[in-house]
Specification:
The structure is a homodimer. The first copy, chain A, is mainly α. Chain A has one domain: Orthogonal Bundle (Arc Repressor Mutant, subunit A). Helix content of chain A is 62%, strand content 10%. Chain A is built from six helices and two strands, in the order H-H-H-E-E-H-H-H. Chain A has a two-stranded antiparallel sheet. In chain A, strand 1 and strand 2 form a beta hairpin. The radius of gyration of chain A is 18 Å and the shape is elongated. Chains A and B meet through helix 4, helix 5 and helix 6 of A and helix 4, helix 5 and helix 6 of B. Chain A binds a DNA duplex through helix 1 and helix 3.
DNA sequence: CGCGACCGACTACACATGTAGTCAATAAGG
DNA sequence: CCTTATTGACTACATGTGTAGTCGGTCGCG
């Protein structure tokens, strides 16, 4: 699967949230703090089309864009890549790391324990 | 902290493993499948120096390079960034995702449960 | 039917990154 | 001492990315 750059990812998020959308609609929904003009969003859309991670259908004179890959699949690939790189492909060190870094609240711990218990049954 | 590109990261790994090292020594230790020449490694080293994530000390006519940031800190930042982006900053969905994607073996589950139990006490 | 708003295509440009070559200086070895 | 191997500095260049402008065509409104 093609890599999706950080900025492009913001556009994908919009379309994973709701699709199909026109370019203008996507621009409206991109987080305001990006400060992008419509032109910038259009560039992103073309590039994502070229990468094959977006699809488009003609709607009169415009395009309607929609994701061509599932968010779930992309996230799987990307998070897997990070785990391979930084945690040698092992998940436990990642969890240990998160715990040590206080990214795990007591509630998280409860939730994860429940999740794991469910997994075992 | 400055971002470290994918290729540059490979150089950092070498120096986190052992430091200080000369450029030639780093080149020797970079995973062979990168297929990098010494020149390429030197470019990486300069860029990492410029980014401030490496430090160097003079050793005669050469430099000895060593990390200026801790691997732990970098990994914390990078993994945090990913969790923020893809899992809205929540850890539980990440673990759920890993579970659903079969990245969790039964042994992982055992280990993580033990880890969490230890955390609670 | 004519004009203005809007659309995608194309162009632009700076900076990052992967990948490597050149070169002047110098240390080391004979 | 003189040659040679080595070193960091600098240069090079293609591709990716962030950010945006221009332009020819066309749809809708009056």
């Amino acid at each position: 699967m093609e890599r999706i750059a950080e900025g492009e990812y913001a556009v994908m998020e919009v379309l994973w949230e709701k699709a199909p959308l026109t370019a203008a609609e996507v621009a409206d929904r991109v987080p305001a703090d990006r400060g992008w003009t419509l032109a910038t969003v259009k560039t992103m859309l073309s590039r994502l089309l070229a990468k094959g991670v977006l699809a488009h259908e003609q709607d009169g004179r415009r395009y309607l864009y929609r994701p061509a890959i599932r968010r779930e699949d992309y996230v799987a690939e990307e998070s897997g890549r990070m785990i391979d790189r930084m945690f040698a492909g092992r998940v436990t060190p990642l969890v240990a790391h998160l715990a040590a870094r206080d990214r795990l609240t007591p509630e998280d711990i409860e939730e994860i324990e429940a999740l794991l218990k469910a997994l075992k049954s």
